[in-house]
Specification:
The chain is α/β, with parallel strands linked by helices. The chain contains 9 helices and 14 strands. The radius of gyration is 21 Å and the shape is globular.
Length: about 350
């Protein structure tokens, strides 16, 4: 039985990427060695790293005034690296609180400067994206989490502002075009929409750096990694290679604009069924629903059926549909690599379950 991976992360990867990666794990190129054991200084891997850095910028449309880096420590390390590298102690950054990950990012700022939470949807259980809030001109940057995996919300348009945006795109990078003219720094952990856990993409506008007065530890200074082309220390070779394979796949699909159309089509199939089906109800406001993480619960009066529905999903090979541990309900993560037939199979199950239970 074919299984469909709806986990939020580590998440689904394209089948052809998994095939290519498995072959490279045995023998990479013409080297006669596994990608897992080659030197990160070898010309073969240097070519992989340089292609990956260039292709990340190409797919998203960033120009020569930006550098693309592959770092370690996950997106969570960027929560403190960003203010450490960009914010002086007497300066302020603006943050929008839209979920667990933005809240964690907010906590790290006070070590290096001042943060101001400009808007939050916490009081409504993060069911929407705040809009129409004031953005002061004296902040150094505005930090946004573009997609919220736990609560199923997503920015479909970024705020209009002259302040540089710093955007955590861990769960929707390469799924749609981004306004590069607004973005000063973009970062994304690989494990949700790009590759396996172990590397983090950072794309930073070079003029954002080198302006803080503090001494930054060498390993945590973006300029260290720019000057050493992401190889100051041994980079995570295999996660970078698989991320490159995934980016090549995205380009072959038509790039991020084509991916956005496919993602909109896939999400619409599932959201239409949630809205139609008497057993289920979506948890995010419709205008802010995520194209990556579809969150829903049992409708009022049917809550006792949750475990049975999850068991049916497992029996049908639909794995990872259980909601986040602190939220409950259901979450179907439908990243770039999720084929439409996986969503259609989930929808067919939802219809059959309702026919028998409603």
């Amino acid at each position: 039985m074919k299984k469909y991976n709806f986990y939020a992360g580590p998440a689904i990867l394209p089948q052809e990427v998994l095939q290519q990666a498995s072959e490279a794990a045995l023998s990479f190129g013409n080297m006669g060695l596994s990608i897992l054991e080659i030197s990160h200084r070898s010309k073969e891997f240097v070519a992989v790293l340089e292609e990956a850095r260039a292709l990340a910028k190409e797919l998203l449309g960033f120009g020569d005034d930006y550098e693309a880096l592959f770092l370690q420590g996950g997106a969570s390390s960027q929560f403190f690296m960003i203010p450490m590298n960009i914010l002086n102690e007497n300066e302020k950054a603006g943050y929008v609180d839209t979920g667990n990950w933005s809240a964690k990012a907010i906590k790290e700022v006070s070590h290096f400067g001042t943060q101001e939470v400009l808007a939050s949807s916490k009081a409504d259980n993060y069911t929407y994206i705040p809009k129409d809030f004031d953005i002061p001109n004296d902040i150094k940057y505005l930090h946004l989490t573009s997609n919220n995996t736990i609560y199923g919300t997503q920015y479909h348009a970024f705020p209009e502002t002259n302040v540089p945006l710093v955007v955590d795109m861990s769960s929707d990078v390469f799924s749609r075009p981004v306004p590069t003219d607004k973005i000063g720094l973009l970062y994304a952990g690989a494990q949700k929409n790009m590759g396996p856990a172990g590397t983090t993409l950072v794309i930073v506008r070079k003029d954002m750096l080198g302006k803080v007065s503090r001494n930054i530890p060498t390993m945590l200074d973006y300029n260290t990694h720019i000057n050493k082309a992401s190889s100051f220390n041994t980079p995570p070779v295999f996660p970078i290679y698989v991320s490159l394979l995934t980016m090549r796949w995205v380009k072959a699909q038509g790039g991020v604009a084509a991916m956005e159309l496919k993602n909109e089509e896939k999400a619409a199939i599932l959201y239409d069924e949630i809205d139609r089906n008497p057993l289920f109800v979506g948890t995010a406001r419709k205008e802010d629903r995520s194209l990556m993480n579809v969150t829903f619960v049992m409708n009022k009066g049917y809550e006792s059926l949750e475990a049975e529905f999850l068991n049916r999903c497992t029996e049908e090979g639909l794995v990872g549909v259980k909601g986040y541990r602190t939220v409950g309900g259901f979450r179907a993560s439908i990243y770039n690599a999720m084929p439409k037939e996986g969503i259609e199979k989930l929808v067919a199950l939802m219809k059959d379950f309702a026919d028998k239970k409603a």
